[in-house]
Amino acid sequence: MSPYMVKRIVGAVTVVATIVLVFMVAMVIGQSIELNRLNNQSKLLDAKIEKLIATKTELTDGIEYRASDTFIEEQARENLGMIKDGEVIYIFG
After folding, report:
1. What are phi and psi of 87, to 5 degrees?
2. What is the pLDDT of residues 27-85, one digit of tens each?
3. Domain boundaries along the sequence of the chain
4. How would you write 24-85 as a 3-class SS string?
């Protein structure tokens, strides 16, 4: 093989290797950008989940309170004017 042929082959391999390297770098950059986007989306979703968990807890506590005897008694006294046996109502007017 002549030195000219070797030089052409080395040049062609160098060009192909450079193209492959540029393509791989572009893919890595693209994947890095996509990973960053997905991480940001994951953080937003985690924040939404935490907010929903807090809302669920608040609603569950409200449901439990409204099912309690304390709440029922408060409502009976305030809205229906009911009293317990032995209690006296004083009306000031």
Report:
1. -85, 155
2. 999 999 999 999 999 999 999 999 999 999 999 999 999 999 999 999 998 899 898 88
3. 3-80
4. HHHHHHHHHHHHHHHHHHHHHHHHHHHHHHHHHHHHHHHHHHHCCHHHHHHHHHHHHCCCCC
